[in-house]
Amino acid sequence: MKHSTERGNFGSKLGIILATAGSAVGLGNVWRFPYMTGENGGAAFILIYLICVLILGIPCMVSEFIIGRRGAVNACRVYEKVAVESGRKSWFSAHFFPKFIGYLGILTGFLIISYYAVVSGWCLQYIYASGTGQLQGDVNYVTKYFQEFSSSAVMPVVWTVVILVMSHLIICRGVRGGIEKAAKLLMPLLFILLLVIVVVSCMLPGASKGIAFLLKPDFSVVNSNVFLGALGQSFYSLSIGMGALCTYATYFNRQTNLVSSAVQISLVDSLVAILAGLMIFPAAFSVGVSPDSGASLVFITLPNVFSQAFASFPTVGWIIALLFYMLLSLAALTSLMSLHEVLTAFFVEEFHLSRNRATLLVTVQACAVGALCSLSMGSADITVAGRSLFDVFDFVSGQIFLPLGGFLTCLFLGWGVSKRLVKEEFFTGFNPSRTVVGQLVFSVFIFLIRVVCPIAIAAIFLHQFDVI
Question: Is the pTM of this model over 0.85?
Answer without folding.
Answer: yes
